[in-house]
Every structure is written in C-alpha cells, then in structure tokens.
Amino acid sequence: MKNLLRNVRLAVAVFRVQAQAEKAYLGSFWSSTVSKLMYNAVFITFIDLLFRRTGNIGGYSKNDFIFLLLVSQIGWYISFYGIFKALSGLVETVRNGAFDFLLLKPVPHRSFLYASNLQPYDFLLTAMPSLLIVGSIIHWSTLELTPVSILLGALISLCGIVICNTLMFVLITPVFKAGEATDILNIFHSISSAVQMPYSKLPFFMRIMSLTLLPHLLISAAATELILRPANALWIIPPAVLAAGIAIVVFQWLWRYDLKNYTSASS
Amino acid sequence: MLSQIKLLLAMCWFEAQRFRAYPLEIVGGLGSRLAELALFITFWLIVGRFSANGAIRPLDVISYYMIITGFMPFFYLGFGIAGTTIEMIKNGELSQVLIKPVNPLLYPWAQRTGQNLINVLFGLLQISIGMYISGGIKPHAWQFLVPVVLNMALLNAAFNIAIGTLGFYMIEARPLKNSLLVLISFLRGERMPIFLMPANVVGFLMLTPFPASQYHLAILLQGTRLPLWHDVWVGTAWGVTLFLASLWLWKRGLRRYEAVGI
C-alpha cells in the first residue's frame, strides 16, 4: 500500500511536469493532432475504397471494419504511450548514460521509467479527437454489443498488451550489454501495422503468432472478434490468459536479470 | 566534383559501420521488415479469399506491395532525408555542416544511405521476389523505364528537400512530416494499389505528382500493367517543377537560417 501511494505520487509529479512541457510547445501539440487525424482519415478512405470493390471481407461489413479500426487505434495508443515510449526512454537513457542516474534515485525505478514516459496529456489531447471522430462515424445500432462481449474483448486486449510489453522488453535486452537497440525497438511499429483483419479468418500459424510475436493481432483483431462475434473466438481466451501469465513471469525475471548484469553500457 | 563524391561515399561508409558495432541491429531491421511483410500478405490473402465478390487476386497485390515497398530505401520514400534535415536544423548541426567542405543538401543523403544499407539490400530482395511472382518487366515496357525512374527520383528528391525545409520555419516539424507521409503514401498507391481504386479517383490522381513518385515504376516492374505516356509526361512536368521549387525553398530557408538563426 505504501509503495502504491509512493508510485502514484511519483506519477502525479511527472505528469505535472509533462503538462507544463505540453503548454510550452503548442506547435508540436497541433502538428501531432493533425498527424493522428490524417492517419485515421486516410485509413477510413482506404476502408471505403476497399469495400466499394469487395462488398464484405470475411463476414465483416464496412461498419464492422471501422469498429475494428477504432479498437485497434485504442489498443495502439495504449501500447504506444504505455510501452513503446517507456522502452524507447529506457534505450535512450542507457545510451546517454542517464540510466545510471536513474538507478541512483531513491524511487521505484520501473514505475518511474514507465510513468515518466507515459504522456497522458499528449494521449488525451492529441489522440482523443481522432478516436472520437472514428467513433462518431460507426453505426453503433447495427453492432451487436453486449457488456459481456465488451469485457471479453477488453480482457483479450489486456493480454495482448502484457505480451507486447514483455516481447518488446526481451527485444531491447541487448541495450544493456551492447548499448544499442534502436532498430530493434522499431519492430514495434512493424508488428502494430496492418493488424486490422478478421481474427477468425487468420491462418492457424498467425493465430499462434498472435500469442507470441504478433500480440497486436490479439489487441485489435481478436478483441474485435470477441466483441462482435464472441462465439467465433471464445477458444482464444484460455491460451491468451496463459500466455499473458507467462509473459508477466518472464518480464519480472528478465528485469531483475538485466539490472543485475547491467554494467553501464554507455561508459 | 570527384573529391565531393569521394567524401560523400566515405561518409556513407562511415555511417554503415554502425552495423559492425551493433550487429543485432541488423536482426532488428530484418525482423521489422519480415513482420510487416507477413502481416500485409496475410491481410491481402484474407481479402482475396474471403471477399464477397472475389474481385481481387491476392498474388497480384502481394507482388505489387513487395515491389512498391522495396523502393523505399532507394528513393527515401519514408522522407528519411527530410527527417534528418529537420533534426539537423533543430539541434544546430546544420551550422557545423555549413562550415565543412560538403554540400549541405547532400550531407543528410550520404548519412542516411549508410544507415539504410540493410534496408537497401532487403529492398532489392523484395523487388526481385515481387518481380518473380508477377513475371517482371516485359520487353515492350523497357521504353518507359528511364523516364519513369527519372520522374521518381526527381519527385522524391523534391519532396524530401521541401519537407526538410519546414525545419527552418517550425521547431517541431517532425509530426507534420509524418502526417504528410501518411497522406502522400496513400495518394501514391503504397497503402492501396491505385489500380484497385475507382476510375474517377484514378483519373484525378493521375493529374497529381503522386503516382509518378512511386506507382508507375511499381506497375512497370510488375509487368502486368503499363503507365500511359500522357501520365508519365504529367509526372515529368511535376518532377521538374517541384524539384526547382524545392531548391528555391531550400535556398530561401538557408538564407533565413544564416541571417537570423533559428
């Protein structure tokens, strides 16, 4: 409890500093908002043109696909701000030597690392408008949503995020020894691109990959399938929960192992 | 001139040495490309196999995608040069470059080419596989090759220079660069093949510089379609105009930078 309160206080302090930085660079804020709006506008145009050509894809209508876009965008933002930013911050601090100073600080190191790179203001102010626009063009009445299916979708998405965190941490482990993992870290962008597809139509191999190397398929495609057509994807819940459990254990162990073996790669 | 080329090649080689120091970065670069390819191929296989009217042949789109994204490191289609230029201006590195005996416009080109070496090799492999799947360039299409490649080089040089110039006017030009990249990559057929778009959209796009900056060469190497001469000339007109305009913008921005700083 004491540790939790300490972490919360730390996060609040970090967010306050970040809010001041956001206000100082308003140009950055606007261009970032435009960038996110542009991405969604282009993707919706792509869906529109594709469905004019194909009718429907794997039982998904155009409306279902826009919903899939919304789910994948929410998952992407959570993993980008919650995982990618933290780990790119870690790589950067190891490279420039600041990680040594972080280890000297009397704070919970992992919490500080994740909280200091979270950027909730950037998420709320720049990503929210585009999410609201995508949400507003979905015909919600035609989607068969139930509270249970939404909960199942959220659960599978959470499993995907946990797996993604461990995967990215495993991938950047060389930074502690070799002092560089920038290109490896960029795998995040590749594994999170083009994941908008009907999960039940994925080949078996790709479904297995979604539990390990391509977790964004769980975060977006499997979550959407569970929300829209729970019967098609119920089977994925036990293996996904198991994979997420293993991912947590691996992450805890690897964090301790890496710190133990860390010998200031930047010096 | 020769000494300039030698210097630029030396810079390029120096940047490529990064992979000798960090060999795992090669694995990272390859892993990224393979993951992207796997996801894209799966997407179009599903579209081809499970779409209502079966109007799309997956192999056609997959070979197209492999070729069109294989060009990325050769023509800096991700606006990497623009990004490097923006960074150089932002962190003041440009001031150091200006006092060196090297062209400040070509400096980021040499730097980026060295950093991109693995992507160049992978791009070459991708283009070869894409051409193999689709049959490759046909004998009667060779006449298009030189003007189409020149158009592509001119247009992408112009885009990189012009977008890089934004750094003279904005501190945080990178997000704007990214949004332009998203828009342009769609308009030039990288996200969705232009031949799958409705006729009225295709007609409009062919009047813009974008298809000539990537799409024309992709269909040419694929060998299943040909660009129209009219569209190629439209691309040439855009290429020359935009390239000259981008040089003018660069000189204007540089004058401002030298006069008042950023």
How would you summarize this macromolecular structure in one to three sentences?
The complex is a heterodimer of chains A (267) and B (262). Chain A has 267 residues and is mostly helical. In chain A, 78% of the residues lie in helices and 0% in strands.
SSE layout and pairing:
The complex is a heterodimer of chains A (267) and B (262).
Chain A: H1 2-24, H2 26-54, H3 62-96, H4 98-104, H5 109-116, H6 120-136, H7 147-172, H8 174-178, H9 182-185, H10 187-191, H11 204-210, H12 216-228, H13 230-233, H14 237-261
Helix pairs in contact in A: 1-5, 2-3, 2-6, 3-5, 3-6, 3-7, 3-12, 7-12, 7-14
Chain B: H1 2-16, H2 18-21, H3 24-50, H4 58-70, H5 72-75, H6 80-90, H7 93-98, H8 107-115, H9 117-134, H10 142-165, H11 174-187, H12 199-205, H13 215-222, H14 229-260
Helix pairs in contact in B: 1-8, 3-4, 4-9, 4-13, 6-10, 10-14
What does this structure look like?
The complex is a heterodimer of chains A (267) and B (262). Chain A contains 14 helices and no strands. The model of chain A has no long low-confidence stretch (mean pLDDT 86). In chain A, helix 2 runs parallel beside helix 6 (120-136), helix 3 (62-96) runs antiparallel to helix 6 and helix 7 (147-172) runs antiparallel to helix 12 (216-228). The longest helix of chain A has 35 residues, at 62-96. Chain A has one domain. Chain A has helices at residues 2-24, 26-54, 62-96, 98-104, 109-116, 120-136, 147-172, 174-178, 182-185, 187-191, 204-210, 216-228, 230-233, 237-261. Helices cover 78% and strands 0% of the residues of chain A. Chain B has 262 residues and is mainly alpha-helical. Chain B has one domain. In chain B, 73% of the residues lie in helices and 0% in strands. Chain B has helices spanning 2-16, 18-21, 24-50, 58-70, 72-75, 80-90, 93-98, 107-115, 117-134, 142-165, 174-187, 199-205, 215-222, 229-260. Classes of the chains: A mainly alpha (267), B mainly alpha (262). Chains A and B meet through helix 2, helix 9 and helix 10 of A and helix 3 and helix 11 of B.
